[in-house]
Amino acid sequence: MTWFRKKEQRIESVPADERVVKTEGIFVKCTECDAALYRRELEESLQVCPHCNYHFRIGARERLAMLYDDGQYEELDADVISSDPLEFTDTKPYPQRLEQARRSTGLPEAIITARGRVGGHLTFIGAMDFSFLGGSMGSAVGEKITRIIERALETRGAVITVSASGGARMQEGALSLMQMAKISAALARLDEAQLPFISILTDPTTGGVTASFAMLGDVILAEPKALIGFAGPRVIEQTIREKLPKDFQRAEFLVEHGMLDVVVDRREMRALVIKLLTFMVNPALQTPAPQFNASNNGRDPNGPTPDVPATESKIQSPKSEVKN
Questions:
Q1: Dihedral sign, CA of 106, 110, 116, 117?
Q2: Same-domain status, 197 and 245
Q3: 0.85 surpassed by pTM
């Protein structure tokens, strides 16, 4: 009596060209040091190479999950998307480019705005995604950033923007340039309300984004070796006809010249942001309101301005000066 019996069906042989171990998607090659990185370890280190500290580009949703407490947040204004006001066409119509970008990235726009808690503090974050038309700033991007600023004003929250953009979107012409002034005006109101605004610059941050809200933060942070500037280095070299310094327009160069506050490793970014918010939104550290001055016409500068009857006004009309 045999203990084992051979199956009737024989195992099919595998062709020689298919006798390989499939490692596609398991390893990632570092762009800086050419090291083979295990994808899972790379994700655990927030897409930072453990060998050379090279920071890979990450998407907007990954950025939000990295900053918010427990990765939990509420997405805002997902229905605000770009249209085609100028009916722009280059090699293909602008609406076709938008649709193609939405299909390839799964994003509605070049920025994702959200509300949540960072270190327990109510915070509104706008994270740009370079994979969506180069993170270009169009009318929808400007509107979404302005809306989170207005929400922060209503709820006394903080605002954080994460920039990754090639600048204003050329397909929308002057309408995209108008967003620079629009967002800057909203940030001026945020400053008057003494609410914090932290700007985080990633690779790359250029053009109209750099020339507007990206450089208006109360604190400006940047990731290592991020390209930050207005025009590209090649354009500048061709214009001034001079060789630019080494690492020109890189984050470390800008810190040395006083354009940024600090360069922060991505793995330490959240801890520093929480530390900044804890300091900036502390009620004990906010500027107190001006004290009541009895000599100020007997009025409280902190209270509402009363309506002064015309008979009590110190300013006389021209008729009262005419003698009969």
A1: positive
A2: yes
A3: no
